[in-house]
Amino acid sequence: MTVKIRNIDLGTGLPKIAVPNVGSNEAEILTSAKEIAQAKPDLMEWRIDYYKSGIEDLTKLTATAKKLRELVGELPILVTFRTKNEGGVLPLTEDKYLELVETVIINRLGDAVDIELFHDENRVKHLVQLAHDYNVVVIMSNHDFEKVPAQDVIEFRLKKMATLGADIPKLACMPQSAGDVLRLLSATDSVHKVLEQPIITMAMGDLGKVSRIAGQVFGSCLSFGAVGKSSAPGQLSIRDLREAEKFLELK
Ligand SMILES: O=C1C[C@@](O)(C(=O)O)C[C@@H](O)[C@@H]1O
């Protein structure tokens, strides 16, 4: 199965490329968006946890989203609030996080929304349903910045996300050894073969770079590359990422 976000199809061909926008005020966000659009990624990820004043004032957040859309035209936008526990920059209570995701969906601030797996299950399910009602694609996520979990744990989490209704399950983790990277890749390969939904995985840091370029081989449909400032350790520049993916293309 492939998942369509505006004009792109995830889950077929080379992994698509997302570039995070980590601007911390409206001017920065719009300037980065221009630079990102020029680099022609498949998708822009708007990391709203970097935008403190927008999170504190949702009218402002919505106004910026409108300007962003005007600026990038048809470029698909994924809106992500990454919680502090999972590598984000801004602390937010559980309630505020869930309310924020709801605002993102109801106001259609993007074409897709990131919903983290590890929150109250019923509320997560409700958000997934709401997103689908509003025609917003759900990328469900989990991040471990310390380690790579056991293979069955990785597989369980990705499958659990699918059960909760995620259109695309995603897992990012931090390897401490080459063996850790192999385990993530092996879990990716097994889950990719049995799940209907396309998945996204990556190992972070330098050791993990190989996992960011080899998604087509192991079964990950999207990779994050940087234009300017990156949003996680080990991200390559969009230019290097695109070239490296091409070297490994399955023809
Ligand atoms: O989930 C991810 C993946 C990521 O953490 C990475 O390792 O590239 C970068 C984040 O911006 C994004 O939300």
List keywords for this structure.
single chain; 251 residues; 10 helices; two-stranded antiparallel sheet; eight-stranded parallel beta sheet; 45% helix; binds 1,3,4-trihydroxy-5-OXO-cyclohexanecarboxylic acid
Topology:
Elements lengths: L2 E3 L2 E3 L5 E6 L4 H13 L4 E5 L4 H5 L1 H15 L4 E4 L13 H13 L5 E5 L4 H13 L3 E8 L6 H13 L4 E6 L4 H17 L5 E4 L1 H9 L1 H4 L3 E3 L13 H10 L4
Helix pairs in contact: 1-3, 4-5, 6-7, 7-8
This protein binds 1,3,4-trihydroxy-5-OXO-cyclohexanecarboxylic acid.
How would you describe the overall organization of this protein?
This protein is α/β, with parallel strands linked by helices and 251 residues long. The mean pLDDT is 98. The strands form two sheets. Strands 9-8-7-6-5-4-3-10 form an eight-stranded parallel sheet. Strands 1-2 form a two-stranded antiparallel sheet. It has a single domain, classed as Alpha-Beta Barrel (TIM Barrel), CATH 3.20.20.70. The protein has helices at 26-38, 52-56, 58-72, 94-106, 121-133, 151-163, 178-194, 205-213, 215-218, 238-247, and strands at 3-5, 8-10, 16-21, 43-47, 77-80, 112-116, 137-144, 168-173, 200-203, 222-224. Helix 1 runs parallel beside helix 3, helix 4 (94-106) runs parallel beside helix 5 (121-133) and helix 6 (151-163) runs parallel beside helix 7 (178-194). 1,3,4-trihydroxy-5-OXO-cyclohexanecarboxylic acid (DQA) binds next to strand 4, strand 7 and strand 8.
